[in-house]
Amino acid sequence: MSASKTEVRRFRLGILAIDGCMLSSIASSSDALRVAQKLADIRHPGALSLESIVFGARGQSQVATSTGLSLGDLADPPEHLDVLLLPGLMHGSPQEVIERVKRLQPELAMIRAMHLRGVTIAGTVNAPGGPLLVMDV
Question: In what order do the strands lie in the sheet with 83-86?
Answer without folding.
Answer: 48-55, 9-16, 83-86, 120-127, 130-136
